[in-house]
Amino acid sequence: MTTATIGSTSYTVSLQNGRHEFLSDEPLEKGGADAGPDPDELLESALASCTAVTLRMYADRKKLAVAGIEVTVKLQRVDKKTIFTKSIKIHGNVDDAQRKRLLEIAELCPVSRTLMNEVEIAGTIS
């Protein structure tokens, strides 16, 4: 569970999840202080980090010669559709078949699966 708290000035949000404290903010051009990633960047980060960890776990389990993994995610909104573009670079000695399998595994990360499934958001206010 994550809790977001914002005061009465700017758009800097304090986020706490019980183990970590971090910030989110809007960029300067949107009136924020740019003190942290904006909400869309946090969503991109969630997908990128989940993909990287999932690939690392798979590579370790299969003992693939993967020295490093770099995942870049870009979020775009086009009409009523949200498009995530994910670019993955595998550093190491892996062949084309292994790269193909790694791309398949990347789609199985929990955040990818959440974003590809039907999502329901229930809210309350007090």
TrEMBL record:
Family annotation (InterPro entries): KH_dom-like_a/b, OsmC/Ohr_fam, OsmC/Ohrsf
Protein name per UniProt: OsmC family protein
Organism: Sediminibacterium roseum
